[in-house]
Specification:
The chain is of the alpha+beta class and 167 residues long. It has a single domain, classed as Alpha-D-Glucose-1,6-Bisphosphate, Chain A, domain 4 (2-Layer Sandwich). It has five helices and eight strands, in the order ββααββββββααα. Strands 1-2-8-7-6-5-4-3 form an eight-stranded antiparallel β-sheet. A hairpin with a 2-residue loop joins strand 7 and strand 8 (116-124). The protein is globular and about 40 Å long.
């Protein structure tokens, strides 16, 4: 894979796997995925805004992200971290405030490939129906779009500038 290429696979009835290469080291990608001040800069498709983000990045810690769609509807996602192995992997549960579908488990892996990072996100759903409903809602395009925003954040000096603002 090359940077900017996005792949989505459905290897089983209850799983979606996203793959995307970023022109940044794993530690930078990990930070952008787990630090609220960075996540708020890119999370969600174009036109959506991340209005709130909290992360207690430890096993048993909780996380919560609120995004606002262009029509004003808020999407609230939350869960708990099951595993944290910075900067290469974390596993978390995920649920939505307005859609109770059962437990979803998301495994995020970052693979160093000579200075670039292969992101692999494996999402296991409670059923094929839930997975298929998410796919039908445009989840593949949303993921492609928000990873493009993440790539922009990781490019150039933007990430360094934001990190210096926080310190």
């Amino acid at each position: 894979m090359t940077p900017s290429e996005f792949q989505l696979e459905t290897p089983s009835d209850d799983v979606i796997v996203h793959r995307r290469v970023f022109a940044a080291p794993p530690a930078s990608v990990f930070d952008a995925l787990t630090k609220p001040h960075l996540l708020r800069r890119w999370y969600g498709p174009p036109g959506w805004t991340c209005t709130a983000c909290t992360m207690d990045l430890r096993v048993g810690g909780s996380w919560r992200i609120v995004t606002r769609k262009p029509d004003g509807q808020e999407i609230i996602q939350s869960g708990e971290f099951l595993e944290v192995a910075a900067p290469l992997r974390f596993v978390k549960t995920e649920r939505w405030a307005d859609w109770d579908v059962g437990e979803i488990v998301v495994t995020t892996e970052l693979v160093d490939q000579n200075g670039v990072t292969l992101l692999i996100v494996t999402t296991r759903f409670p059923s094929k129906d839930v997975r298929d409903r998410l796919l039908a809602s445009g989840a593949a395009q949303h993921a492609r779009d928000h990873y493009a925003k993440l790539a922009t954040l990781l490019s150039g000096d933007e990430l360094d500038r934001l990190e210096k603002q926080v310190k």
